[in-house]
Amino acid sequence: MNAPAKPRPRAVITAHANADFDALAAIIAASRLYPGAALIFPGSQEKNLRNFYIQSTTYLFNFRAFKDIDPTDVELLVIVDTRQKSRVPHVQALLDKPGIRIHVYDHHPDTEEDVPAEYSLVKSWGSTTTIIIHELMSKGITPSVEEATVLGLGIFEDTGSFAFNSTTPEDFDAAAWLRRHGMDLGVISDLLARDLSSEQIRVLSEMIESAKTHDFHGIEVTIAEVSTEEFISDFAYLVHKFIDMENVRVMFALGRMGDRIHIVARSRASDVNVGFICSFFGGGGHGYAASATVKDKTLSEVRDELLALLYSHINPQITAGSLMTKPPKVIDSDRPMADAAELMTRFGLKSVAVVMPGTMRCVGLLDQRTADKAVGHGLKSVPLAEYMVTDFTTAAPTATLHQVMEIVIGKRQRFLPVVENGMIIGVITRTDLVNLLVEESARIPETLLPDPKRDRNIRSVMRTRLPGSIIALLEQAGLLAKELGYKVYAVGGFVRDILLARPNLDIDLVVEGDGIRFAHALSQARQGRVKEHQKFKTAVVVFPDGQRIDVATARLEYYEYPTALPTVELSSIKMDLYRRDFSINALALNLSPGHFGQLMDFFGSQRDIKEKTIRVLHSLSFVEDPTRILRAVRFEQRFNFRIDGQTLRLIKNAVQLNLFSRLSGARIAHELQLILDEENVLECLSRLQDLKLLAAIHPQLHLDADRTRVLMELRKVHDWYRLLYLEPPVNTWKLYMLGLTMGAERDSLELVCRRLRFSDRELREFLALRDLLGESLARLMTWAETQSSMSDIYFALDPLPVEGVLFLMARSRREIMRKNISQYLTRLRTQELLIDGSDLKIMGLKNGPNFARVLRKVRAAAIDGAAVTRDKQVELAKSLIRGLEPGGSGTAEPQTAKKPRHQ
Fold this sequence. Notes:
Layout: E1 11-15, H1 21-33, E2 38-40, H2 47-60, E3 63-64, E4 76-80, H3 92-95, E5 101-106, E6 119-122, H4 128-139, H5 145-158, H6 169-180, H7 185-192, H8 198-210, E7 212-216, E8 219-228, H9 235-246, E9 250-257, E10 260-267, H10 274-279, E11 284-285, E12 289-295, H11 299-314, H12 320-323, E13 330-332, H13 337-347, E14 351-355, E15 362-367, H14 368-376, H15 401-410, E16 415-420, E17 423-429, H16 430-437, H17 459-465, H18 468-483, E18 487-491, H19 493-499, E19 507-512, H20 515-525, E20 529-533, E21 538-542, E22 548-553, E23 555-558, E24 567-570, H21 573-578, E25 588-590, E26 598-600, H22 605-610, E27 613-614, H23 621-624, H24 627-639, E28 642-643, H25 645-656, H26 665-676, H27 681-690, H28 693-697, H29 705-723, H30 732-740, H31 746-755, H32 760-781, H33 790-797, H34 802-811, H35 815-826, H36 837-842, H37 849-863, H38 870-884
Parallel strand pairs: 1-2, 1-4, 2-3, 4-5, 5-6, 8-9, 13-14, 19-22, 27-28
Antiparallel strand pairs: 7-8, 9-10, 10-12, 11-12, 14-15, 16-17, 18-19, 18-25, 20-21, 21-22, 23-24, 25-26
């Protein structure tokens, strides 16, 4: 039975996501102006509104889900109670539709992202419903009793039952008109006058406990915080309750609910426009009432940014020009690294602006740590332009305090050049901001304080993305560490992949304490065993079920010279994370009881994950360990991220310095093997080629058109083979190495293998495989469909391991040959003979080379369909043996079908 056709309306009416009663009422009111329009309810998180909508509205009005209509014929989109594009994502398909006409009705202030409209009716009245009601009044359109009541709900809620200062005479007029048409005040009273549940009372109590009042030049602003794993219904209503109870003039309530931060703001002070403040968080509203929802930020990050916004908003006279230090200390980009280190040491600078030689045009930033480490690595003569940071933000002298704080705090750029007419005229440091705010320490954002903590807790996310057994293991690790007086953290890729919702049970633990002692305690608690590495203060715990966990003592690694193996010193978790390769891997997850699931993010890791960016933690990262470059490419392609501009420049610099030539072949081979095991192997290799990294490993490694084609086909045939669950499993490294070195001369291939430190046995096996491939390929090239048999295919491929067979399948351009090879892999190679050597002995054949010759000819006949039963194979074997007897020709051949059987 065919599904019913979707409705095809010509007009659609909707409102903003997370709708309130005013949005719902405005949709219904607008439906009287646009008869026949489909009403799209955008969803709401307010419990009362949702229940009312479900129980009543769907039965009374023409509401639909957007997915249930066919937008093909929609010509007109009507948006009410908002104009912001970001607040109507549920009808994005209509916004993008060419030629769509848009009408808007709204009572909110203008914003930069307002959708362009053919018709716009915007008035600063108490509710959008009021605006549309006046249109109904002017056109003589009267509502039903049910409509009048719903429309009244919109007005009463948005005006606070006419108690908000935003209420206008027009709101009273609209309510009076609705009352005359049957508006039921009892229903409105029941819906708006709510009894608090025990959970809401708990939340309100937490708001009161957490509330702090900040004085911004005589204007008091109260900020309250709530944190819970569940959604808090009617959060805005609780904020109103708080304001009434505490007589607050300006209020910001921050509610962490699961992985989102909800902001509800109210203001009775003309100097504080909460709509303007909330717009910075992607929300909106009026100067007196606004809200926003923030993803991928912690509660403390939102609070810090809010404080910075408020401080800047209420103190507009503070600008970058009044904060900066001038004249700035600068250094030309062509000066050696030693000069930069000496300059910063002499003047006690932590960073310095780098300018184009002979000018004040700022082209980079260099910090003291990078300069000192570069000198320590023997790079004192290298121009500092090679390692300066080129991806940075500048500020104009007229920039507001908030804009400055957004760069220094939000982007974590501790050193800010102030630029006018393209020339640097001053600098602002993080210390400058601290000094400015030190007299009002309650307002210093935590991100400006030493060793800031990130209080985002992802315990609930962990429970949805990790097996219960792993959660139990991590909790036990935290308890054991506490008993020993230590702290333990899960770190690196395991934490990263929890945030990315990718499966990864490869757990690395870092202990602030004795990691090896902790490993033994964990092993004993779970009947495991421990492998120690005293030199590196690390251990591996292996449990009876095969689960392995790497345990390390929190440590700082330093490198005595470029590409050296690291020397280890004991350190803290923050310094341990700083030694990581990229910011996305510099995350730690606290496993301690009471803090389980708390995310430690000191280096902007969450931001880079959100922005899909691969970024090194310092400029000398690739000098210390060039293999990180290969990991950068691997992560970039695996996660579909991008290597950021500064990191990309450092990669090119490492190639120019020929740092790969100093690396051992074993380290390169290990990283290359990991790349060849990636799902996006071809994309990884193409990226390595683009960055000249393949040639840096060995000049014979390069991608031409033939190798690229074969590598593409190798991925297809490998996926095909894997999906069939055939045995034996493929050695992916060997398979793709065949493609990557295809066409190389034998001597050149040997040089590549020796550069990658193949063992003597590995080298012999790989070269032998290449020789076998040449022989098999020659036999396959002479195969003709009308003149050759399937047994010829079998015997050409039988000497090869599965990697060689798949390589020939990918290399072949003949479809018939690819089909034949697939038959070999799926059927022929596992097809067993129905006779064996014991049968030949019974027939009187003595041991010797003739055994193999007879069985080979019987197998050929079986493959080609001439001897598929045991009787046929026995008869053929006897015939062959007779031909070998004295007096016989010794060359008897079975009558096999030359035409191959394609099945």
